[in-house]
């Protein structure tokens, strides 16, 4: 392509001096600004939001792009506060505004006045309309919901085999000790043909009749990403599946029509894994407790039977002739011991009685009485001797008698010249009374 094809004329440096009528950058940019802002009527522009930035001033800056181009956009604070749509990266929108030129950078931008969601609003309306229609048919009725099996050992998972959802699902099941069998039924989960593949796999799982539970789901994404699970063909396949279905699509905040048609909704595929492994773990615990109880009961029964057998053996052993003879010898020895003990006791009692009688007889003999009376007379004689006059004389006293032999009791009875006799312990002496 030459310069003539572009409609450009060559610069003839000989005709005029370059720069004689040159504009400044500011002047040229200002002419462009006036030209664009006055003559270009923007209207509505459709695209995807990216590089979204919210400034502290309240202004919002972002880019609007599609597959072939990108447009810089700004929405000033007043316009941003009026919007009902909350912008986010990846969001499909339709914008209305005017073109503006930012002279400092020499760039043009779209000054946004109005924001309308594109696609999401339409999809949301389709979602609500289909939900009302299927609900009216009874596909979401509570009485259609089936309980999950108590011990799910065969689980089918309709999802993308390369997605993170199935990896998270398997990791949780293994970590929580689930011992069943998981079969991944591969299907596209977004894009063209995804709904048909998911519905076909659900129908296949129903025909195989080899699963206890069927999980249908995928990881999180936008409404468009999850739309396959809002398609009528998928919803009807979930509702018609003869196997109990767990819908595990997206994140906790995401709802699809498959969630309403399924028997159980899990917030995420990981939540479905926790639900199934928890039910499995509870049943395993119940079986373990029942097994322990069965073993304990069986052990008790065996021990009771063993004790009864021992008792019966003991009783049978006692009934044998040899045991009877041994028992007879034991009884004879016991009676002999008892007789010997009784004879010994009786002999001891009789001997004690004889000793008591002997002692009583010994105390009752005449000789014993004579001895006792002799001792009593001796004691009386000793007392008599102690009180006799002779005993008094031996203690140093003197008995004085008058001529008639009468004892002189007082000194006033002594007469002068009268004869008296004094008796000492060793003899008598004649005395005469003096003045």
From TrEMBL:
It is an enzyme of class 3 (hydrolase). It catalyses: Exonucleolytic cleavage in either 5'- to 3'- or 3'- to 5'-direction to yield nucleoside 5'-phosphates. Its EC number is 3.1.11.6. Residues 139-431 form the Exonuclease VII large subunit C-terminal domain. GO terms for molecular function: exodeoxyribonuclease VII activity. The keyword Transmembrane does not apply. Its main location: cytoplasm. It is found in: Cytoplasm. The keyword Cytoplasm applies. InterPro entries: Exonuc_VII_L, Exonuc_VII_lsu_C, OB-fold_nuc-bd_dom. Residues 24-115 form the OB-fold nucleic acid binding domain. Keywords: Cytoplasm, Exonuclease, Hydrolase, Nuclease. Coiled coil: none annotated. It comes from the Bacteria. It holds the Pfam family tRNA_anti_2. Bidirectionally degrades single-stranded DNA into large acid-insoluble oligonucleotides, which are then degraded further into small acid-soluble oligonucleotides. Belongs to the XseA family. Heterooligomer composed of large and small subunits. PANTHER family: EXODEOXYRIBONUCLEASE 7 LARGE SUBUNIT (PTHR30008:SF0). This is Exodeoxyribonuclease 7 large subunit. It comes from Actomonas aquatica.
């Amino acid at each position: 392509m030459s310069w003539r094809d572009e409609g450009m004329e060559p610069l003839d440096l000989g005709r005029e001096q370059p720069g004689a009528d040159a504009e400044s950058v500011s002047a040229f940019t200002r002419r462009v600004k006036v030209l664009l802002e006055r003559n270009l009527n923007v209207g509505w522009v459709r695209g995807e939001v990216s590089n979204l930035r919210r400034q502290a001033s309240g202004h919002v800056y972002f880019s609007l792009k599609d597959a072939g181009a990108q447009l810089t956009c700004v929405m000033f604070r007043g316009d941003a506060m009026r919007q009902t749509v909350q912008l986010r990266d990846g969001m499909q929108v339709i914008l209305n505004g005017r073109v503006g030129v930012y002279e400092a950078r020499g760039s043009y931008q779209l000054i946004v006045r109005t924001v309308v969601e594109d696609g999401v609003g339409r999809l949301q309306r389709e979602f609500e309309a289909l939900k009302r229609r299927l609900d009216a048919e009874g596909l979401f009725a509570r009485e259609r919901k089936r309980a999950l099996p108590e011990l799910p050992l065969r689980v089918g998972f309709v999802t993308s085999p390369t997605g993170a959802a199935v990896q998270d699902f398997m990791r949780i099941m293994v970590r929580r000790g689930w011992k069943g069998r998981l079969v991944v039924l591969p299907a596209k989960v977004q894009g063209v043909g995804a709904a048909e593949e998911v519905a076909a796999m659900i129908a296949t799982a129903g025909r195989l009749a080899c699963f206890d539970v069927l999980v249908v789901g995928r990881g999180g994404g936008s409404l468009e990403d999850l739309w396959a699970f809002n398609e009528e063909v998928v919803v009807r396949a979930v509702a018609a599946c003869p196997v109990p279905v767990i819908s595990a699509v997206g994140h906790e905040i995401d709802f699809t029509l498959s969630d309403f048609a399924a028997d159980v909704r899990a917030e995420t595929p990981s939540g479905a894994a926790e639900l199934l492994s928890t039910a499995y773990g509870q049943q395993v615990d119940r079986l373990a407790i029942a097994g322990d109880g069965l073993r304990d009961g069986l052990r008790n029964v065996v021990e009771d039977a063993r004790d009864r057998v021992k008792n019966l053996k003991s009783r049978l052993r006692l009934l044998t002739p040899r045991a009877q003879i041994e028992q007879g010898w034991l009884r004879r020895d016991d009676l002999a011991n008892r007789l010997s003990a009784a004879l010994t006791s009786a002999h001891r009692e009789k001997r004690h009685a004889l000793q008591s009688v002997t002692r009583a007889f010994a105390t009752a003999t005449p000789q014993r009485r004579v001895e006792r009376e002799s001792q009593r007379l001796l004691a009386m004689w000793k007392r008599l001797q102690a009180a006799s006059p002779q005993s008094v004389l031996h203690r140093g006293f003197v008995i004085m008698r008058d001529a008639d032999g009468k004892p002189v009791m007082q000194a006033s009875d002594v007469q002068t010249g009268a004869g008296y006799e004094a008796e000492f312990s060793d003899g008598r002496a004649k005395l005469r009374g003096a003045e």
